[in-house]
Specification:
Strand content: 35-45%
Helix content: 10-25%
Number of strands: 19
Distance between the termini: 71 Å
Number of helices: 8
Strand order of the largest sheet: 3-2-1-4-5-6
Structural class: alpha+beta
Number of domains: 2
Order of helices and strands: HEEEHHEEEHEHHEEEHEEEEEEEHEE
Radius of gyration: 23 Å
């Protein structure tokens, strides 16, 4: 039995759409998710939902239309809306949707044993609360979410791909006096989640930050945790690697191909085929087969990211970098598992300013790279041990420039959303204290 017998309406949709347009693409998502929230130490809300969504793109003479619905039974209306929106679109260069290729369809991030039910979420919350008792801080909120999804992509050129994935995430916030602490964890399987550690770390940062000391204005060697580094990298550096931003004049790296843009120890790449990574997938949101993309190799800029639309417009080839924010979102340039890598070593032997998180990275200038952020849960660290906490201060500089000042990457990396990052030691960064 062919896989699409169970969704025969997709075949009918593509057939009907083909009568009016050149190409049709169907993106269908269905699954189950459950979430539970804490308000202080009490369960405030637990929900379970059956998720379902349909997105349709139609292309005719270079005009791209789109529409979506959470009721697949109304696909005819959704198709008609997509065709109608395409008639209003500006025509553009378009090289066509991809055709099918043989792919291993074994899921890369799917745990069939995961029980997506309220009891599982409640157990995660309780484990975080157990960990939170190890420090004198008050839990203010927390959450646990589990999901199991199946994604189907089909188009009028014969693509019929399907993928399954699971995910679990937990987070906790705590307060002690005027100091707050936050921690989270994420994975595709419960076996790799440590909710007790999340509770312990959140309350540690809240309690130990309470008696922070002022730091004088000056330049310091700084150790950014993966969480803090992700804020700067994700808001400034990663967008500069988008082909759309490059050709629109919105990337500082636009003219730097084959030039050094980071310390030689630094490499950055997107690896969609990492087993067990949250963003792993064998085909992107448009059905292009994925592969590893080396953006920066040994400090040298080697590539930019493209989806089909941008590649067609500028005479490039898609790098299979299309992602969707959901079934209702059109494909856009993104990444799957964005990895920062290089030589690993101990980075906290010497006395450095450790920064667990930053506030305000979204205000950084994505073109120039200039930023000024508030330090959150900052400490002096030496010989791998937390020393004195640091009172509120600001870190300012340039995201692009600081990548030339990186002096070390920690042995371990951590997933922060779709980023997989080490802690990063950076020399002589400007801290605005007292």
């Amino acid at each position: 039995m062919r896989w699409w017998v169970a969704v025969a309406w997709i075949e009918q949709l593509i057939k009907e759409g083909g009568k009016a347009v050149d190409e049709v693409e169907v993106y269908f998502v269905e699954g189950t998710s459950v979430s539970a929230d804490l308000k202080r130490k009490k369960l405030s809300l637990a929900t379970i939902s059956q998720d379902c969504g349909l997105g349709i793109r139609t292309i005719h003479k270079g005009r791209i239309g789109s529409s979506s619905t959470n009721d697949p039974g109304r696909w005819r209306e959704c198709l008609a809306a997509s065709v109608a929106s395409g008639k209003l679109a500006t025509p553009q260069e378009w090289d066509g949707l991809p055709g099918p290729v043989p792919l291993d369809m074994t899921p890369l991030s799917f745990d069939p044993s995961m029980e997506v039910e309220p009891d599982s979420a409640k157990k995660l919350l309780q484990a975080m609360l157990d960990g939170a008792t190890k420090h004198t801080a008050e839990v203010t909120s927390g959450s646990a979410t589990l999901s199991s999804m199946e994604v189907t992509l089909a188009n009028s050129h014969g693509v019929r791909y399907s993928d399954r994935n699971t995910s679990v995430s937990v987070s906790l916030e705590a307060i002690h006096g005027q100091s707050t602490g936050y921690e989270f964890d994420q994975s595709w399987t419960l076996d790799r989640i440590d909710p007790e550690n999340v509770g312990e770390r959140a309350t540690f940062f809240a309690s130990e930050s309470a008696d922070g000391k002022d730091i004088p204005y000056g330049e310091y060697d700084v150790l950014l945790s993966p969480l803090a580094y992700a804020e700067l990298l994700g808001n400034v550096f990663v967008p500069a690697l988008s082909g759309r931003n490059v050709h629109a004049g919105r990337s500082r790296l636009a003219t730097s191909l084959s030039e050094r843009v980071a310390d030689p120890m630094i490499s950055m790449y997107d690896d969609p085929l990492l087993p067990g990574a949250d963003g792993s997938v064998r085909w992107d949101a448009e059905g292009s087969p994925t592969r590893r993309i080396d953006f920066i190799r040994d400090g040298i800029l080697c590539a930019f990211a493209y989806d089909l639309k941008t590649a067609s417009r500028y005479g490039k080839k898609s790098t299979a970098s299309a992602v969707r924010g959901g079934f209702g979102g059109s494909p856009a340039i993104g990444h799957h598992n964005f990895v920062v890598d290089g030589k690993r070593e101990t980075v906290d032997d010497d006395r450095v300013v450790y920064v667990h998180n930053v506030v305000g990275a979204h205000t950084a200038n994505p073109m120039s790279g200039e930023f000024s952020v508030e330090l959150s849960n900052a400490f002096w660290v030496e010989n791998g041990e937390f020393q004195e906490p640091i009172r509120s201060a600001m870190l300012s500089g340039n995201v692009f420039d600081l990548h030339h000042a990186i002096s070390g990457l920690s042995p371990a990396s951590r997933a922060i959303g779709s980023l997989i990052l080490p802690s990063v030691k950076i020399n002589k960064q400007r801290i605005i204290g007292k």
